[in-house]
Amino acid sequence: MRPIIFDLEVLRSFVTGVDLGSFGRAAGRLGRSTSAISAQMKKLEEQAGVVLLRKEGRGLALTDAGETMLAYARRLLELNDQASRAVRGVELQGRVRLGMQEDFGEALLPQVLGQFARAHPQVRIEARVARNADLLERIAAGQLDLALAWGHDGRLPHSERLLDLPMCWIGPAQPPASVFDADGVLPLAAFEPPCLFRSAATDALDRAGMPWSAAFTSPSLAGLWAAVSAGLGLSVRSPLGLPAAVRALAPGEFGLPRLPDIALTLYRAQAQPDSVAAALGSIVQQCIYDSADAWAPAHTAGPAGI
After folding, report:
1. Membrane spanning segments where (predicted)?
2. Among the listed ranges 100-104, 114-118, 237-241, 295-299, which one has the minimum average pLDDT value?
3. Closest Cα partner for 91 from 276, 256, 215?
4. Pairing verdict, β 146-150 and 261-268
5. What are phi and psi of 136, to 5 degrees?
6. What is the DSSP string of 2-60?
7. Are 268 and 277 in contact (CB under 8 A)?
8. For FRET with 109, which of 15, 36, 123, 283 sits at 20 to 30 Å CA-CA?
9. Measured in whole angstroms, how far is the alpha carbon of residue 37 from the centre of its chain?
10. Contact 246, 173 (CB under 8 A)
């Protein structure tokens, strides 16, 4: 059977349309007409032999096959771009400043830094691990070039919503008999306010009529994990980057209320970042998508407006 050879330009249009949430916007970004992009998507589905996009409301969404194609398309494009830079001897130089939430400082950050340093050894990276408020303030002030942060702050214009991840109740790795104290109160281990996860936890408990207490408050994620693993209380985070000493509870476990999803957003200081920041942003995105695919591909960002 003759192998299928996918057109990289078609794959780039596909990925760009998904990332921007609209093939119309992808046409503008890529300098093509909307009809040309539509023809490319038809060609891609014909080559794949399966439906990649389905109607959802007033827009389109990826099918399961489309999700699979998206993951491979990103990898093929990244390899193509790396090969292009390598054979032309193009070396980026300069400095780039990256900020990340603590959730990603232990696992994702070394992966991002290592991959970027191997590809661009002449670039100096300054990395900062901090909480949301600090990261967003620094992006707004131009003190960071890129920041990976929870939520989606519409007041900052140069942002890209990468994923919507489920918030989870986090307990010790060894399940206890009960997560409530003798009086039926749920002890919480949380960051100091303001904290999106803390607010989501208390709001959900209040709506469910479940009493709770702030059993442990910490300024650091390491402190939360220590408290949770010791059985001092439950916390709320996403399923990404959890240490072995804790686990994400299943939905409804111990009768706990369901929690909402939370956005993960890549913020940029500039609408059109320079080549160094753009290259690092691409690697951050790919590492995030790969990490998300490892636990639940269904939770990757849906292109509802495509």
Report:
1. none
2. 295-299
3. 276
4. antiparallel
5. -70, -35
6. PPP---HHHHHHHHHHHHHT-HHHHHHHHT--HHHHHHHHHHHHHHHTS--EEEETTEE
7. yes
8. 15
9. 26
10. yes
